[in-house]
Structures are given as C-alpha cells and as structure tokens.
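[Automated response] Your request has been received and processed.

Submitted sequence:
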Amino acid sequence: MNLPSDRRTRRFLLALSLLILLALLLNLTASRLLTRQVRQAVLTREGQIFSSLLAAGLPEPVLLDALSAQDVTKAGLDLLAAAGRTSDTPIALLPFAADFSRSATLLLTACALLPGLLLSGIVLRYLRIREEQYRQATERLESFLEGDFSRRLPLLEDGEFGLLCAAADRMATALQARNEAERSARDFLRQTISDISHQLRTPLAALELYQQILAQEPDHPDAVRTFCGKMETSLERMEDLVLSLLKIARLDAGAIAFAPRSCLVEELAQSAVRDLTERARREGKTLRLEGSPEVAVRCDPVWTGEALGNLVKNALDHLQPGGTVTLAWARSALGVRIDVEDNGPGIPPEVLPHIFRRFWRGPDSPGLGLGLPLARAIAEGQGGSLTVRSEPGQGCVFALSLTKP
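Generated structure:
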C-alpha cells in the first residue's frame, strides 16, 4: 500500500499509529494491575476463610486438601445457595466482586478516555487545518474569477491537495498572462486606431482642400493637373501609411508566420535595392553592395528584403546628393550581420533613443515614422535584432543580425 504523499496527512497517520500503540500499552498495564488486584483479593479472601475455619477447629490437612480441590459438588452449591451465594446474587452483596468491578471500571474507563481525548484533539486539529486551507483556496479561486491575481493559492510542499493548488496556481498564471495579453492587444488596437486617425487627418484634409480647389477651377487645365498630382501624392501617402500599419499590426498580433529558409545574402541585398536604384540615380546618390556571394543566412526572404529596403530607403531620405549608402554583410559569431551604412549627417544623441518609436519623425524627416519600427519588428520576429550606432557628422550604421542557416 502506498503511503499518502501529503506530509501533513502522513503526520496525522503517524499520530494515530502512536495513539493506537499508547492504547495498547495502557490496556496491557491495566490488565497487569487488574491481575495483581485479583490475585491479592483471592489471597485475602482465602486467608479470611482459612482463619475462620482454623478458629472453628478444623485440622490443617483438611484445609490444605480443600485448597487444592477441583470438583464442584451439588452439596457444596446447595450450601452456597443457603448462604445467599448464587448467580442471581447482586454484585453489591459480594464485597470481593464489587470492589473488583469498581476498580476495573475506573481503570478501563481511564484507559479508554485518555486515548479518546487525544484522538479527538488530533482529528479536530487536522480537520481545522484542512478547513482553513480549503477556505483560503476557495477565496483565492473566487478572486481569480473576479480577475484579481494579486494573491495566490497556499503553497504546500507535497500531497494531492498541494498538487491541486499548484495546478490551480499555474492556471491562474496562464489566465493572468492571457488577460494581460488581451489588455495589451486592446491597448495596442486603441493606440493603433488613434495613430491611424491622427496620421490620416492631414492627407484627408489636403484631399478635401484639393477637391474644393478643383471644383472652383474646372476651366483651368494647369490647375487641375497640378492638384490632381497633389491628390495622387496624398493618396499614395495614405496607402503607404495603411499598408505599413497593417504589417506592424499583423507582426504584433503574431498573425504572420515567417517561412525561413537558407538564402544568399547577396540576393537579399539586390532585392532590397532593386526598387531604389533609380531613385538614388535621380537624386545623385550611390548604392553599393559589399560582401561575399557565398554567405548565406536563414530567414524569410520576402520579409527580410522588406526590412533591408526600409533601412536603405531611410538612409536615402537623410542623405544629401553625392552621398553613398553601403549595404555590407559578413559572418559573425552568432550568425550573419548585414550593415546598412551611410555617410550622411548622422543622428544626434538626443534623437537616437527615439528612432524606433512608431510615428516618431525627426525635424527634417520626410517619412511616416514607420519604416524603422517595421524593420525592427521583422528582425525580432525572426529571432534576430536591429541596432544602430551613429555620431553627428559621421553618418550612421544600422546592423541587422540574423542566425546562420
């Protein structure tokens, strides 16, 4: 039979075992005392009878023969009956039996009462402790149902009840994490909606203004073309904003399942600058790729290419004509690092801590403030990282680190 795993229950059973042992010892002691009392009473009664018979003149051999006699005769029983000694005689009329009965009753009652009181005390204490534990557990579970996870279930070392409390505590931890995740999701959704409404307010107001101007100038083709172009720019800006926000929201919500595979970094770099080459040429800027064509990395090529594209675009946004953006890669101790470096004006120290905040833009930044946060979210979503180092007047370097294939 397996012993209970609860330490308190084991102690309770041990106390019961000791109590049973104590009861046995008391009974043995009482039995010895009663045996001694019976022996002393028999000797006293036989001494009284012998003394009386000797005084009546009976010889000693006769008395000794009577002491060793084993037979019970009818004459003897009749004589006892004549003296009032039968099985129906009240015990109170039998001094020897009455004394023995009183002594045995008192002794056996004491032997039963002491273990009984101890047993009652042990059981009551055990039940009181269990009741208090159940009460605390009930209160904690009710507080969990109300969303209050500040207090946890009683911590018990072992036992079935301890395992139950530990399981309920783990469930509470999971519920708390889920509640916090849902609260964060609600806060994020609320903030995202607020950001979208704030960011869309400017292009929507511009579109409304352009529409009013066009409505007043229907006969001026030059004005119509000019403001149609401005409307197109505002619409493109709105489209970029909404698409970027949706991508970040999907990344934050874990709705994007990256498909990592082994990719050549050179192919990722070429994909990142492909749509920006013409822009760099028009603006008089240079794009360079540096790195071994054999270096490979494990990543999602589509999303990683977008992150690199955002970094290159950010560098072009802050670069003056004649500047250079270098996309270089090399193996590192933990994987592969891809640097996007420019020789622009750099980032002031007071601005550096804010560049990965959503919708944060520097005083001369033409973007939406979403390219860098999106690039970092893509890197971290694949187990990588995106860091930056810069000094004013010496350009800046964005380092995208990813694992080896």
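Summary generated for your ticket: The chain is about 60% helix and 10% strand. The chain has a mean pLDDT of 78.
If you did not submit this request, please reply to this message.
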